[in-house]
Amino acid sequence: MQKRNLSRIEIGVLFLVAIMLLVGFVLFYTNRELFMRYTVEDGLVEWLTVLGLLLGSAVCIYRFVNLLKKRNWIFLTLTFLLGILLFAVAGEEVSWGQRLFDIQSSEFFQKNNTQSETNFHNMVVNGVKVNKIIFTFGLIAALGIFLLVIPNLYRKNVKLKSWADNWGILIPRTYQIIAFLLLFVITELLKHEKNSELLECGAALLFFLIVRYPLNEAIFNSEKNVIKD
Length: 229
Fold this sequence. Notes:
By secondary structure, this protein is an all-alpha fold. It has one domain. Helices cover about 65% and strands about 0% of the residues. It has nine helices and two strands; from the N terminus they run αααααββαααα. The protein has a two-stranded antiparallel ribbon. Strand 1 (about 125) and strand 2 (about 130) form a beta hairpin. The model has no long low-confidence stretch (mean pLDDT about 85).
């Protein structure tokens, strides 16, 4: 596979993630009050998270419409569902605009949500936080497979490569995998509960890059292109 130069968007997003992390670390060690405001609900970090998720969703929906009748139903369904999923996660992130429009949570969410907000990721089921199940265990395991196992098999297994391309499975590029791993390591160095906000923000922006510029980007184009890494 031929090497490719990063686009301005890719460079810009990587720079944005780096600056977001740097600002977080500087504020944490110099001004804890500003750090809390930086990572607070509806703060800058959260809105950058939402931006990354919405951009990824928009790319998926655009591809679904653009490739309608040009790809098989599994390819189109998975692309569409990913777009809806990213939109839903963005909605969850801002509690579906509850705080923006000053909407009172229903009695159900007030009783079963750790923050009394209208979202599901902060729900408690039988004393266990849904957030912990999804993000602490499920998401980390899924990302491990997605970032480390699948790309390696994709490059070495012809059958898996054909299956992934036929189904529209996104394959991360090498630089995207490295950026994700660095994000995990760097945020773990920040021993504070709000490090998860920085992690979520970086992950959302980097996942947008995977959605927009996957290794198998050519399968999402109407014209046939050479897949480059």
